[in-house]
Amino acid sequence: MEKINVKALAKINLSLDVLGKREDGYHEVRMVMQTIHLYDRLKITKTKEPGILIKTNLDFLPTNENNLIYKAAKLLQETYGIQSGVAVLLQKHIPVAAGMAGGSTDAAAMLYGMNQLFGLGLKRQGLMELGVKLGADVPYCLMRGTALAEGIGEKLKSLPPMPKCPVLIAKPGISVSTKYVYENLKLDGQLSHPDIRAQIAAIRRGDLKTAAQHMGNVLETVTVPQYPVIDEIKRCMMDCGALNAMMSGSGPTVFGLFEDEQMAHAAYGVMQESHLAKQVYLTSIYNNRMAVDLESRRRRGPGH
To answer: Of residues 71, 137, 171, 234, which has the active-site annotation?
Structure first.
């Protein structure tokens, strides 16, 4: 094998809670993560010349060691003594610096692609253990599907698949500093925490409406007052019939969950015409086939 094409799928947070700040400066989080059908494409090719060459469709993205794709490739080269170089063509579609793990999922795709390309034979767990060295979201981006993330985001537990539904994505033309958001989060008695347990119970029942009702993101308490357009986008989605709408991660991207495909398409049009967002996408929930099969087997009981 000399080349491979890999999809790097984005994520949203169906809920995001911050439990406290650790002594090492990181925050303890509890989140329900969900993969969606919005993705970047990586074309990875072996090269005779050593090194790592990255080209992308966005000229403002770094293509050196400041890119997580570069770091992922270098990690594998150094860990497994890979002498060949790699060239990567990145077609970027996931909004950048948007709370959707765009960089992390590209790194995860690079780890997966090089594992296949060079026949390293690593299982998913082995890739996830390498991935955490690159960032807390990378292991989840290798895992995909519906998952509970705890610790700093690296402790993962697979959940039953979230019911499939249309997902409207809207990113306003602003950038948000994750560091700023966490540094200004007030972890006091006034903070309203999402009921993640109730949301997980709804997901287990396949109850889309209740799962949507229990969406919550404590980071909105920092980001929304700083950037009121986020709240405007949320209200626009709700007015268009979304079951619920919320900021993903530290923002500024907002997503809305819809029950009806036609209503979601109409909302997509309204959002584009509103000019509240610079990037608007209509996509859907992505679930791992393995997770779906396991949950189906669990419901039928052993021996089926």
So the answer is: 137
